């Protein structure tokens, strides 16, 4: 799909460069995140936890997947604050480096057989660093691409962040397919480390692109005229608290992604169903491949008809379709699983996934956009991350109660629907006027000189 021309107030080529930087950074972030998710479902129970109790080992391994989501709200507070004070670019570079280093270190960790209980402790520490990085990555990338985008193409340009997310998931799955097919002894001894080490290559490419980005026109104008907020969080909670809560509720739709990519994978390859590990990884790969095309199409539609209707299609539709997808897994029919996996995750979920970067970002003014997106999304994502752990418990001692997990996932899609129904439609509002409120002069705003 061709990229529209830059708006008149943006430096030539910067909207394209911002979208590319957002894509590559998100690809790295979620390559790292989802190789961890695949490893947590398939490998880490045997490498880092007690093999004598497989059910408990799997539960603990999936819990470490959720630990990063618990760290994300804390990271959002700090990275959101500084992103609205010093700019979007510096946060984008920082999060990229942090994610690349922490993921590489996971590939270097000793196993439980080598150092005992220290092994899972070190794993959790690296996972926390991944979570802090992710807390600022999407919010800064979304803010950068939204504020550089032509006003009538904000949905399309910001969707590159989520296209990158799907690209990272696709890359993670494709890397894991040959790794998962290795002989069991080689896989557990050293093969699982390879995907984590490979993240360094993506980090280097992303860094080269991001360090040449210019700050956005709207942030630069804000800093030069009214000045930036001394305490962005105070301004955010005073003027945008309802929108923060709305984003928290809407972000719960990410539960569909975590249940699909982690719990469903573990369930399908468990003794209860017995599907082939490599075949199930291909379901995720093909679904993400379809999503790469669907996300910009849904986002472009939102530029025409609005953010709310497209988001509602994704949130409500994927909540319903998860029943069919998990039922298909329970039948053991691979063609059925493949088709429903692609429709559920590749097509319908992409509607919510493709539009939320613009939908959430347009709720906030330039002064607090990064803070509002970071805090709102990361609290919602934290709940979504632990949805995998809750699903493992809800599924019962044998891990095969898929219907309860489907009901749980559908329930988590209700708050996003309510949030969208109560939100303002913003796709036609000029970028400088997004999220503006009538306000009096406030001591919370720094002058252009920064004092």
Report on the architecture of this protein.
The chain crosses the membrane at residues 21-44, 56-79, 91-112, 187-209, 247-268, 280-298, 310-328, 334-352, 373-396, 402-423. It is found in: Cell membrane. The protein has 451 residues and is mostly helical. It folds into two domains: 15-215, Growth Hormone, Chain: A (Up-down Bundle), CATH 1.20.1250.20; 232-427, Up-down Bundle (Growth Hormone, Chain: A), CATH 1.20.1250.20. It contains 20 helices and no strands. It has helices at residues 14-42, 44-47, 54-86, 88-106, 112-115, 118-148, 154-180, 184-189, 194-197, 199-210, 217-224, 232-239, 241-250, 255-268, 277-305, 307-331, 334-361, 369-394, 402-412, 414-422. Helix 4 runs antiparallel to helix 6 (118-148), helix 7 runs antiparallel to helix 15 (277-305) and helix 16 packs antiparallel against helix 20 (414-422).
